[in-house]
Amino acid sequence: MGLMRKLTCFGFGAVLALGACSGGSETALSQAGQLKTIYTNFRAATAKAPPLPTLTPALIDSLTVSSLEIVIEERGATAYLVPFSDRNDRRPGKLRTWRTADNANLVFRDGILVTTRGLGNDLGSSDASSTVAAIQTRSARSGQRAMFVRNGDNGTDRINLSCTMSNLGPTTLSIVGTQRSVVHLQESCTGSNEQITNDFWVDRRDSTVWQSRQWASPELGYIRTRLLKK
Amino acid sequence: MKHATKKISAGCVTLALAFGGAGYVAAQNKTEKTVTTGPTLNFYGVPGLVDLPSGEALPTGQLAIGVSTFGGQTRTNLTFQFSPRISATFRYIGIQDWNSDGFETYRDRSFDVRFLVAREGEYRPAITVGLQDFAGTGIYAAEYVVATKNFDRPLSLPGRFKVTAGLGWGRLGRLGDIGSPFGDDRPPFDPLDLGGSPSTGEWFRGPASPFAGVEWQVNDRLGFKAEYSPDDYEPETSRGVFERDSRLNFGVEYQVSERIRLGGYYLYGSEIGFNAQIQFNPTRPATQFTLAAPRPVIVRPSRNANPQAYDTGWSTSSSAPTVIRDAIQPELAEDGIRLETVTVLSSNRAEARVSSVRFDNQAIVVGRTARALARILPPSVDVFDIVLVNNGLSLSKVTLSRRDLETLEFEPGASDLLLSRATIDEAAPRPSEGAVVVEEAYPRFSWSLGPYLQPSFFDAEQPVRADAGIALEARYRFAPGWLVSGELRQRLTGNIEDSDQVNDTQLEPVRTNARLYAQEGGSTIENLFVSKQWKPSKNTYARVSAGYLEQMFGGISTELLWKPVNNRLALGVEVNYARQRNFDQLLGFQDYDVFTGHASAYYDIGKGYYGQIDVGRYLAGDVGATFTLERQFANGWRVGGFFTLTDVSSEEFGEGSFDKGITLSVPLSWFTGRPTRQVVSTTLRPIQRDGGARLNVSDRLYEQVRDGHRTDLVADWGRVWD
């Protein structure tokens, strides 16, 4: 390789580093457009997450809307969610959709996670009727669960679970300085490849799920929740 | 935070391109999963030990890239597990110090196929029959039957043992043979043979030798291999490439990550070797596809509770469609969906025609459009007709009941339930009467400026050559179906022009003078054409393109395709007049021109397999047929193979005997996890000759159309609620 060619190569490298430009009302499908996409996504992936607020009783008192804290254990990610919509359907349990600041949704049926959207490897839908009944009555029950999980090829994998709820007794829970009298319910589920344990700390009076640790999907793993403000 | 993939705005990518707090729930410190160890690769890039194959198959759809080297011999292997039982391998090799037959370094390409005869059972081993280098010049030609059995924690040792034993012919039948069970008429290897044709008469002929080996996977990461090889490496050792002193090979391998495995080896009693193995599966994206969540479906009040909400008086108002259009259009635009027209068909039915330049997945387009319609249309509208449109072609009509959207959103198995109640049908070529057009839909202009890379694979001297430079590309759509498109290139560097491949073609040089195009091309017009596509009827599609269609040819291309939405079969006709462009790739033409065209049959075999047969006249005037088989994944990955047989003889065709190759398409979203229609595609040919060459026309109809038809929609449907 001659010197001239080396210089040209260097020049080309510099062009690559400067990147590609594109514009108009459509995404350019050319190599330049692809390079821009890769660069943009690289920037997004390496962008620092905004710092999380420090939780204090005063901060929580000052909130004007409900607030839910979630932690995705596998990802070491924490987020604070606000309610997006509430509705009922023909199944028992009220549906509440919570939303993160970056537009991911988690949907709970009476505190039981039934759907996630916008997390990747999402839990598409689930049948958790027996768990809802167990939580509502704060009682040890057994039943079937079905989880419909998104796979990497736009399809849905069905996971069938046999679950047993057990009551681990009353306890007191402290969430950012507020004491709650709760019952600790633990659900053990077995599937063909799964062995999971969901924990719920449920209000002794009205069955509000104040805190939980629930399995969402094989890739998402466990999600911890704390209801900061009802 | 806005939607993660913004509408690409004008302006260069600079450090200032801020992206907000993109996906901080979605993408933080992902913990490394436990390493899984499926079958590992041998030096030929197929499941096996060190240099020997094993009886196992890779997981379906798996792609394996192996680069191995020992004793001056380097093999680059690409294996695709096409189906649960069938895999194919393409290999490019270089053997240094060959110093004979006119080669200093001997370079060759070869193909393998493997068939899993029996899966592993409790007592039964996995059994595979393999054909190695079955169609090339045959330096690695071998056939084998091999069995492998796994043993967990054998003899109280940790980990897992794989024990492999087999019987080999050809290269694997050289030492310690047991005779020739199927006859011994096997010609010796001839490095100057044209190659390319399956050497069926030689398979399983000549002496057969037993071989064996063990692999011990100690834990998730560390593994050991040992084997007893029947290969005497006669062609190599007789030319002094390396010295072979032993039949035993040993190796130690380390699983670096889920996808990468590295190994070091001691082979044939004399050589140190290395093997880098990369395995991945298209069904497991590098980054999980993540999309900002949609807004929940708005549920209408019940008719009993609020009967006046269901009043139908609005539908007689002449301004209603315009008001609806103006409300829906921005909602969809935010989701990257373009509303083309809205029609109020009656007080309880409305049609929206939509297209998307963001989503490759049409089920998402359907789902998001339905949500927007449910938010905005008056409660009396019960039925949504969503027509998917792509560049002026209406692909299909998906009819959804609003009630189903409301009741099924959080039902278990919501996607399948919605699919079972949706109707996927033919879309009329044009909007229904009374459609309100969205004015902003046309004209549309887009451009890009940036680097390009044009690779050229597998010439006699180098595995990869490439030209690189700067490309300016622009597309202008001034009305539905119309496109003016062009690309200017300035080559800055590259070595395609240095190829010293002698042009010995006996046909019209329609492809083999790539070197001349590279030598004379500095500032070039890569392409510049105008095209129009439309639907003559509800299940036919037509296209006409004219101009400088590709790097080497210009002319006129016409195409007609018949493809009913719910039909697996499609038929097409393409007729082109093409004239060879000047080597400088500016406006001029050379003398050679040709009428070329094909009649094509496309068949959707099911489970993502597609077959295609094209019969017709090729660029060099030869007549024949191309056979293509492809595996398509719902996420957009495509892996296929093709070959073309024409009335050109092997001698006239030259090296390789006939045209064949592999096609690979990888959606960029597989890497980024964000929606985009951008795809990286490549066609790998062992060698590019002039026989069986087709015109490279962009936007052939079948690829555009099937994306919105039943099979693809159903494959994508798992994301309809996303």
Q: Can you give a write-up of this model?
A:
The complex is a heterodimer of chains A (230) and B (722). Chain A has 230 residues and is α+β, with helices and mostly antiparallel strands. Chain A has helices at residues 3-18, 31-46, 57-62, 129-137, and strands spanning 21-24, 67-72, 77-87, 95-99, 105-109, 112-117, 123-127, 142-150, 156-175, 178-190, 195-203, 209-217, 221-229. Chain B folds into three domains: 63-280, monomeric porin ompg (Porin, Beta Barrel); 307-441, GMP Synthetase, Chain A, domain 3, CATH 3.30.300; 496-708, Porin, CATH 2.40.160. Chain B is built from ten helices and 31 strands. With 722 residues, chain B is mainly beta. At the A-B interface, helix 1, strand 1, helix 2, strand 3 and strand 4 of A face helix 5, strand 19, strand 20, strand 21 and helix 8 of B. Strand 1 (21-24) of chain A pairs antiparallel with strand 19 (444-457) of chain B, so a sheet runs across the interface.
CATH class descriptor of the largest domain in chain A:
Mainly Beta
Q: Any idea what the CATH superfamily of the largest domain in chain B is called?
A: monomeric porin ompg
| Number of domain modules of chain A | 2
Please tell me what the overall shape of chain A is. globular
What's the shape of chain B? globular
Q: Total domains of chain B, how many?
A: 3
Q: CATH homologous superfamily name of the largest domain in chain A?
A: YmcC-like
What would the average pLDDT of chain A be, to the nearest integer?
88
CATH class of the largest domain in chain B reads Mainly Beta
Write down how many β-strands of chain A occur, each being a DSSP E stretch of 2 or more residues: 13
The largest β sheet of chain A comes out as: 12 strands, antiparallel
Distance between the termini of chain B: 18 Å
Strand order of the largest sheet of chain B: 19-20-21-22-23-24-25-26-27-28-29-30-31
Q: Radius of gyration of chain A from the CA trace?
A: 23 Å
Largest contact between protein chains? A-B, 84 and 93 residues
Q: So, CATH architecture of the largest domain in chain B?
A: Beta Barrel
Instruction: Report strand % of chain A.
Output: over 45%
Unreliable stretches of chain B, pLDDT < 50, 5 or more residues? 1-35
User: What is the rounded distance between the termini of chain A?
Assistant: 70 Å
